[in-house]
Structures are given as C-alpha cells and as structure tokens.
Design a protein that fits this description.
Elements lengths: L1 E4 L4 E4 L9 E5 L10 H19 L4 E5 L18 H9 L3 H18 L15 H13 L3 E3 L5 E3 L23 H7 L7 E6 L15 E3 L1 H13 L3 E7 L3 H16 L4 E7 L2 E3 L14 H6 L4 H8 L8 E3 L1 H21 L10 H15 L4 H13 L5 H15 L5 H7 L3 H15 L3 H13 L2 E6 L2 E6 L2
Parallel strand pairs: 3-4, 3-9, 9-10, 11-12
Antiparallel strand pairs: 1-2, 5-6, 6-7, 7-8, 13-14
Helix pairs in contact: 1-13, 4-6, 6-7, 9-10, 10-13, 10-14, 11-12, 15-16
This protein binds zinc ion.
Length: about 475
Amino acid sequence: MRLFNSLTSRVEEVVPTHPDGVVRIYGCGPTVYRQAHLGNLRTFLLTDLVRRALEFEGRTVLLITNITDVGHMTDDSSGQAVDRMQIAVEDEGLAPPEIAEKYTKAYLEDSAAIGILASHVYPRATDHVPEMIELTETLISRGHAYIADEGSVYFDVRSFPGYGKLSGNSIDELQPGHRELEVAQGKRHHADFSLWKSAGAGRLMRWDSPWGEGFPGWHVECSAMSMKYLGERFDVHTGGNDLKFPHHEDEIAQSEGATGHRVVSIWAHGGHLRLSGQKISKSTGNVVLVSDLVEQGIDPLAYRYLTFQTRYRSEMDLSLDALEAADRGLRRLRQRMAGWAGTPPPAERSDAASGLDRRFREAVADDLDMPRALVVLNEAVSSAEVPDGEKYALLASWDSVLGLDLERSAREDVELPPDVQDVVRRRDDARAAGDYATSDSMRERLTGMGYEVMDTAGGTRVRRRA
Ligand SMILES: [Zn+2]
C-alpha cells in the first residue's frame, strides 16, 4: 500500500520498520473538552481507512490514538492563553476528569457510529505525565531544551537544524507573536515552544516536576506516547492538515531531538471539511455533530460513504443535499445486497469478478483512491457478467475496508421475528408443494404484517416496508 508522505511530498510504500512485520500507526486523537464534529471525524476516518486498507492487504496493524485531556490551550503564543479544559470546567460545572470522561465516551460513540474500528490503545495524556517529564529531561540533557526562570521548559528550535522540514516554515520566517511576553517568559527565541509550563494561580490540573509544579505542553504528549507504545521508529503518523504546524513540526523536533534519528516514516495528513451555506445543524451553529445527522434521519455511515467520494487530502464540501444523496445511495446499495443474498456464489470466481476485485484493491492501495474504488463498486453492482451471488460475496469482502455495513438489510431480513419467519417457511413449503392458494394467502399475511415480499431463487425473501 502506498501513501502520500507530507514530509517528502512523495507517494511511498508503507514498509514496516519492525522485524515483526506489524505496521505501527499513531493518530492524533480527540481533545476531550468538547464534542468532536464532522470535520474532526473526517481526520479520524482517514486513520481508520489507513488501518483497514492495510488489514485488507493482510497486514497486522497496531494503532494508537491518544486522548488529549490536558495542555490544549486557546493560544499557545499568548500570555492570556487558557487551557480549554479549564473553560469547559467553568461552562459545565464539572471537574476536569468528569469532562474528559464525558467527551471521551462521546468520541468513542461517534467514532463507532461512523464505522471507525476501535484503536488498540487509547492512552490519556494525564496518565503519561511521568513519560513527558522524562522526555523533557532527555531534551534538556541533549541540549535541545532549557529551563526558563519561572519554572517553564522550552524547546530550543535553533538547536534542531531540521526544524521546519514538515511544514516548510523556516525559523527565520516565523514571526514573533508577543515579543514583550516572550521576553517575560524567558524564551531565547520567539519560535521556542513549551515542553513544560509552570502552573499559575487557579490552575486546576498540575503536577510535580523537577522544575516545580506545572503541566505539560500539548505537543510533548504525542512524542512521549507514540514512542512509548510504538517504539523509537514507527511507520505511519496521521492527523489533519491543521496539525502540521506547529503540532507535528514540534513533535518531530522533540522525538528526533531525543533519539537522534528519524522516528516516523510516513506522515499522512487529511484535508479540511468545509460546510456549505446550508444549515445542517440546529443546535451547534457552524459545526455539525453525528447527533445532528441522526436528528435529520441520516445514517451516520452515509457521512463515511460521502467522504469516500473525495480524495482524503483534498478539501471537501459538506452539504445537507450531499448527505441526503449519500444516505439514499447507501440504502439502495444495502437493498441490492439483500436482493442478492438468497443466491449462493458460484463455486469458482468468474473472470469478471476477479478483474473487478483486482481493480478495487489497486485503487485502495494507491494512496487510498476511494473515488476510484467507488467507480469499481458501481460497475460491480450493475455488471451483467457477474452473477448475483458473486456480487454479494464481492461487496461483502470489500466492506471490510469500506466499513459501510453493506450487509445490514440482508441481515435484517434474516433476523426476522419468529412469527414472520414461520409464515415465510409455510409459504415456501406451500410453493414447493405446488399449493399456490396457500402460498398467495401467506403472501397476503406477510404484507399485512408490514413486509414487502419478493420471490428469489433462494425462496421467499421479505423486507420490512420503509
Ligand atoms: Zn498529536
């Protein structure tokens, strides 16, 4: 599988660095002081797609998604910066661990609703403060960080010649933010960023450290936790485009500064989600939540389906029309699947099916070209050469990477209430015995029970009428 590497601006093969062959992935996770919106979730979908695509190829994947529950500030360069968690505490009247718990749970539910498979570990920043302190001490001892007067520790960007290699921001081009404040903070260069901040008065979340009471910077958590769980070299790091600078640039400086070598092989970044003029959400203004989709009667997986229609690195427009069209398209696809479900696949795969399968796999492996994969899928659906049973088998296998629950309607047909199953059985028996009067009356009974009745090669199939 090949992915576009933001660090080299090239599409590169994903090659596991560890001899065990396991592909190790770290995805920057949610900040849990508020609900993740569809823009955030698009980035998490990218991570999920990378993982599923590798597993689709038969790879074993180890995926880590961190939970940011401390250190995310309103504005890192400002003296008025406030921890966003603190704002949530004031807004909601809950303690920081309760806020974190509430929004971690919401994140996991929303992720599951859009088909994101659970990560193998969800490390919380607040559980890894000792690792962050240790990393900071290493950076000090290697001459990459220094202690300022008031007990904060800064990364010295001029000590790391590669600073700017991901984002293209050279140190000289970075403009000072608040020069007076930077001097007051004891920074040696305005681009230096904090690894540890001394706790001011009224600060709720604070820890002991060799430099006094304080709390970790946001960037240091991802260096500390990625290397703790994946080792000093790992394969893929994902995140949204907006995290390239400063978050990922600083992570590279920290991790490579501490180890003395390259840590991440491929940096994969997802494009931004733009909302169209249409108002989609009633409650949340300019962001859209999974709950907004549900409220509008849209299957959250329709959002997942919709994201596949745009390449992951491109900006994507989101409108209610597009969501509703995706919802209808997905329902239709599932109903087609249900219609094919009664027919067993042929003993041997047809050439037509093999060709479609090869092209689908190539599209996925080619830097996740999902729009192309969907073209192949649509060809398969309307193909006259591929028998129904084979179509079902093909799409069901592709669904391991699509994650669209394509078998839902077929499954709901199978999971009929016992009384409905009983009538279906009696109708099939009557038909087998040539008793068409009984067969017809059973059909009427099923219709009366709210089901649509279809005759297939596999016997009677019913589907609850919408
Ligand atoms: Zn991160």
